[in-house]
Amino acid sequence: MTRTQRDSQVSSDLKVLTIEYMRKLVEIPRFVHMRNLINFDGVWVKCRRTFHPAAGTKTRSYYLVEKFVVICDTSEWENMYPNLYGQDGWCWDPNEDE
């Protein structure tokens, strides 16, 4: 992505959607094909996952996502603020220790 695209509200909204999707995968575990976990802006979402060979085939590998981490700088978190940290937002402070 270009810097302009990366700083756009559309990019922030897509990141919010991806974070919510990842949160649901951890909350309600289910098999997922890793190609569906798109990191459209480099590797900014990292996840711990468990491979399940019984669910996979020779061409596709399926995993359960156990945990994920979002790697964003302060300005990116601020751009996502209206959707993540607004009224009734669910997101935590990215600088807070677990």
Q: What do you see in this structure?
A:
The protein is an alpha+beta fold and 98 residues long. It has one domain. Helix content is 35%, strand content 18%. Strands 1-3-2 form a three-stranded antiparallel β-sheet. Helix 2 crosses helix 3.
Quick synopsis:
This protein is an alpha+beta fold and 98 residues long. The protein has three helices and three strands, in the order ααβββα. Strands 1-3-2 form a three-stranded antiparallel beta sheet.
For the record, give the distance between the C-alpha atoms at the N and C termini, rounded to a whole number: 30 Å
What structural class do the secondary elements suggest?
Answer: alpha+beta
Task: Please tell me the overall pLDDT.
Answer: 76
The topology string of helices and strands comes to HHEEEH
**How do the strands of the widest beta sheet line up side by side?**
1-3-2
Low-confidence stretches: none
Radius of gyration, CA atoms, in whole angstroms? 15 Å
Number of helices in the DSSP assignment: 3
Strand content: 15-25%
The best one-word shape is elongated
Number of strands: 3
- The multimeric state of the shown protein is single chain
Tell me roughly what share of residues is in helical segments.
Answer: 25-40%
Biggest β-sheet strands, sense, barrel = 3 strands, antiparallel
How many discrete structural domains?
A: 1
